[in-house]
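Re: [ENG-882] Designed sequences occasionally contain unexpected residues at chain ends

Forwarding the minimal case from QA. Structure tokens:
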């Protein structure tokens, strides 16, 4: 796949979001521990890579499942990055980049209220998005009874980003779409397709 050069800054920004250095003020809320051999303080416990369920050779969306079968989502476009904690796809037709990131938070998170979790998510997302951008809208979300937030961001380069974060049984899920001009119904379908299965989460 030959990637449109205009998408490179968008992909870079999404990578910086996905590689959350959760050592910002949200860290104090969850008393995060450091990884031994990494400069990024994620506190993740991930051992398997994303798996594709029923690969389709020609499709606008491919369905992806988490390693434990704990989530699934339709990812538009072609795969740009696929590793243990991050999946990024790009659709050159809509000039949109999509990502999903997941990982386990420290046990201290168990004691946070829904509002406390939303505060952690809000601070983490705001600190790790384009700082020069503007949060246009912030909305409280719920998935399977677990708290989350959604941010709509006008980035300083003119691109528009929509991001959701959830904590389900101590598992952090971040999903995002960033478009050069505007988000289309493709992005709406991407967010609507996200499902979590709490009974399958093993921390």
């Amino acid at each position: 796949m030959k990637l449109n050069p205009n998408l490179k800054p968008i992909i870079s920004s999404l990578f910086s979001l996905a590689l959350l250095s959760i050592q910002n003020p949200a860290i104090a809320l969850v008393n995060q521990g450091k990884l031994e051999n990494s400069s990024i303080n994620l506190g993740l416990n991930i051992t398997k890579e994303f798996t594709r369920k029923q690969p389709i050779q020609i499709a606008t969306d491919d369905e992806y499942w988490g390693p434990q079968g704990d989530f699934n989502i339709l990812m538009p476009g072609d795969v740009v990055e696929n590793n243990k904690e991050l999946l990024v796809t790009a659709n050159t037709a809509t000039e949109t980049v999509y990502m999903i990131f997941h990982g386990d938070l420290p046990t201290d998170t168990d004691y946070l209220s829904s509002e406390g979790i939303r505060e952690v998510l809000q601070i983490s997302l705001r600190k790790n998005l384009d700082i020069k951008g503007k949060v246009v809208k912030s909305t409280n979300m719920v998935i399977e009874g677990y708290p989350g937030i959604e941010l709509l961001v006008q980035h300083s380069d003119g691109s528009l980003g929509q991001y959701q974060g959830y904590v389900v049984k101590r598992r952090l899920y971040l999903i995002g779409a960033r478009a050069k001009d505007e988000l289309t119904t493709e992005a709406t379908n991407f967010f609507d397709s996200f499902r979590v299965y709490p009974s399958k989460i093993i921390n």
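QA comment: On inspection the terminal residues look reasonable. The longest helix spans residues 114-128. Proposing we downgrade this to a documentation issue.
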